[in-house]
Amino acid sequence: MDLHKKWWKEAVVYQIYPRSFYDSNGDGIGDLPGIIEKLDYLQELGVDVIWLNPIYKSPNADNGYDISDYYDIMDEFGTMEDFDRLLNEAHKRGIKIVMDLVVNHTSDEHKWFLESKKSKDSPYRNFYFWRPGKNGKLPNNWTSFFGGPAWEYDPQTGEYYLHLFATKQPDLNWDNPQVRQEVYKMMKWWLDKGIDGFRMDVINLISKVEGLPDDREGEKKGGLVGFKYYANGPRVHEYLQEMNREVLSKYDIMTVGETPFVTPEIAKLYVEYDRNELNMIFHFEHMDMDCSGSKWNVKPWKLTDLKKIMYKWYLALKDKGWNSLYLNNHDQPRMVSRFGNDKEYRVESAKLLATLLHTWQGTPFIYQGEEIGMTNCKFESIDEFRDIETLNFYREMKEKGMSDDSILEILNKRSRDHARTPMQWNDSENAGFTTGKPWIKVNPNYKEINVKKALADKGSIFYYYKKLIQLRKTHPAVVYGDVQMLYENDEKIFAYTRSYGNEKLLVVMNFSEEEVEFCAPKEIFLNKPELLISNYEVEDDIQQKIVLKPYESRVYKI
Ligand code: GLC
Ligand code: CA
């Protein structure tokens, strides 16, 4: 058991979306000097690691996920000197930095792609997937994650290139060993600079089935077509093991792969210790709980589904691998609006979700603003959105004849822009994010919800997070303890114990707006439990039966 103690299991990660974090020079765009200015704030919160969304040179078709130079910094974000300063200042405060690694695709403005499109016999041609049309049609029927076909025609050579995401994000051909060597070289360059790991963007899509076959079944079903030919593709483990051998194993770092379309059985292949691939992955099962077919098709979610998913993942990886824990990120709606109540119980439910995030087994990932309970934004018209996925969806739905109101209603639940509105620092204009004009709308609730207010209130969500993070440092059971579920089939109560050595904790949470009764198991009742944290005032000792208020959460040491 102790053999598997690792710093990245004990760490709490804070995700920064630099564009929306803090603007230091008034151009309306968050930047690296802005992050440096806020490092003391993050130190106060107590996080151990920052994961930076992409900061590399990019024409920003997909906010930095389209990289034109892996060795340079995005103009709007600053310079390499700024980055070095950020890394140094973070390290001084005991905070590590994990970078986003986006290598399933590059920008179409990357020099490799510019070279590859020049001619069919360019030495870079094989860095990407170039194919001639088939009988006057596209090379296959795959569709893009951002809508439309996954192929774009280039008149210069009369062929198409593959892009699983935007047309400005051509897919790299990982079957070409030169591509892999270039990626490893670049990773080493950053690691030698002293960064502390990578979050790997859609890393399980890098190996495509040879021949890139048509997906007839997928086409009949509708939705995204073709993924069965590249999600967890035939050579992905070979490539990740090679990457581990040549790069990762040489450094003491944290790696987490973003992996859509994985079950726990598939995940084991990426994270089991003896496989030597990745430390953790982000799965999507709980993100798919409240939609059917596609992310845009929203349905209510059930607490029992969330519990089943989390328990299943815990059991599957127990003692053999490690889970990541997240409830939102830059691609997802705000967790308090989605899984809590962002109106009368905003504060309570944000704390309740935080309790789950920090006391389940796995490494917690906090998304910027989550620690002050930032909510989804109300977008009034399509002009207020910036995200390429959102804008493409809007266009497609318009073409299908859907009304603006109906599309807006969907986007107001699902758009990635909910996560991307600026961080709310104070109650001055633009939430103190910028002195200029922000690149995207500020959530109008910033006067009520902001960092300044949170820091001035000992009962705020911020200080609750701080305390939870401290609990992970002082109670090893929070990190390493085994999970035992209680109340498994209950639709309102989420409760479990965590045991490690002779330490045992009890976590009880009421995921509903009503009061509910919780009956503690006898052994707990007998042993005079000590309350470690709760989101309401709790006066009494724990009785065998306790009444939990709406969204109440408590953690006891028993
Ligand atoms: C990942 C990123 C997302 C991006 C996509 C393409 O899903 O999280 O933001 O748009 O990959 O790189
Ligand atoms: Ca700026």
Automatic annotation (TrEMBL):
GO MF, one term, reads: alpha-amylase activity
* Residues in the signal sequence: none
BP-aspect Gene Ontology terms: oligosaccharide catabolic process
Q: Which domain of life is it from?
A: Bacteria
Q: Name one GO cellular component term.
A: cytoplasm
Entry-linked Pfam families: Alpha-amylase, Malt_amylase_C
Q: Where can this protein be found?
A: Cytoplasm
Chief subcellular location? cytoplasm
Residue ranges the record marks as coiled coil = none
Gene3D superfamilies per the UniProt record, alphabetical = Glycosidases, Golgi alpha-mannosidase II, Oligo-1,6-glucosidase, Domain 2
Q: What's in the keyword line of the UniProt record?
A: Cytoplasm, Glycosidase, Hydrolase
Determine if GTP-binding is one of this entry's keywords: no
Which residue range or ranges hold the Glycosyl hydrolase family 13 catalytic domain?
15-420
Task: Cite the PANTHER family for this sequence.
Answer: ALPHA-AMYLASE FAMILY MEMBER (PTHR10357), OLIGO-1,6-GLUCOSIDASE 1 (PTHR10357:SF184)
Regarding protein family, the annotation reads: Belongs to the glycosyl hydrolase 13 family.
The name under which this protein is listed is Alpha amylase catalytic region
Which species expresses this protein natively?
A: Caldicellulosiruptor owensensis (strain ATCC 700167 / DSM 13100 / OL)
